[in-house]
Amino acid sequence: MELLGIHHLSAMTKNAQDNVDFYTKVLGMRLVKKTVNQDDPSMYHLFYGDEVGNPGTELTFFEMDQIGQNHDGNNSISTTSLRVPNDEALKYWEERLTHLDVEHEGIVEQFGRRVIPFRDHEKQRLMLVSDEKNEGVSGGIPWQQSKADPQHGVIGLGPIHLTIPDLERTEAVLTEVMGFRRSGTYEFTQTENEVVVFETGEGGAGAELHVHVSPNLHPERLGRGGVHHVAFRVQSEEELYQWIDRLNQSKLGNSGFVDRYYFKSVYFREPNGILFELATDGPGFTTDEDELNLGETLALPPFLEEKREEITKNLKPINY
């Protein structure tokens, strides 16, 4: 049993149309699935990724039109990284973000890689990470019809940053239960705090957690521009059941097996309250749509299909 890397990350948005405009037109990602929150079908659940939304490339958003602004703080997933092919791509993105008036900090060094910290239109903390020196989990394939140059396009999720007040208990879960291993430390220049890096599977940018320890921060209040949970890759449904057994044996409260149709999952919280998910690599997003037409219509899992008319009435159309 070994987690293969980052599977997806789910964040919060106030407006689905504005969200689609930013992530497809500015970042050039593909909307690979337009569906609803299966636990609350009144809201959109949007999935962006590479050309087919391969595991490890999926950035997703729940739309809540009444949600307030995120208040950054502790006990949080504090930065989401997006991988690009190389250092040359970062130069392209630095120019593009500047041209499109996207707030960013320019190209800087972090943990031996070149990165661009930036924020989206709702102030979500993001980071473009160069794969120039990456060894480990391979990236995906940028969408060739992207609004951005596919040669420099986003190829997947990179290191996910957590901010917590106490490392000891979280590290125990990461290493003793989830099988992560320490791979290094660095000083985060913005806060001068030490960041501890953990990796799983083949390692590399697509399989890392960067854990910031900040005992003096207030807890985060989740809102638009905040992150709901991060998911890690499990090879098969059979192995997912083994992970559920391990969580139970470790006395970690969890959701049990959940069928999300496009993948199977289990959810639990690490000791500082951050929501983790373990998700299978398959069956994937071509289960109910062909590759050429991914994301073009509202996709619903079979158990919601009979409610399609009612669900559609409650959703505002998205143009893209």
Automatic annotation (TrEMBL):
Alphabetized SUPFAM superfamilies for the sequence: Glyoxalase/Bleomycin resistance protein/Dihydroxybiphenyl dioxygenase (SSF54593)
Entry-linked InterPro entries: Extradiol_RC_dioxygenase (IPR052537), Glyas_Bleomycin-R_OHBP_Dase (IPR029068), Glyas_Fos-R_dOase_dom (IPR004360), VOC_core (IPR037523)
Positions of the VOC domain: 5-131, 156-281
Superkingdom per UniProt: Bacteria
Protein name in the entry: Glyoxalase family protein
PROSITE patterns in the cross-refs: VOC
Gene3D superfamilies named in the record: 2,3-Dihydroxybiphenyl 1,2-Dioxygenase, domain 1
Organism from which the protein derives: Alkalibacillus filiformis
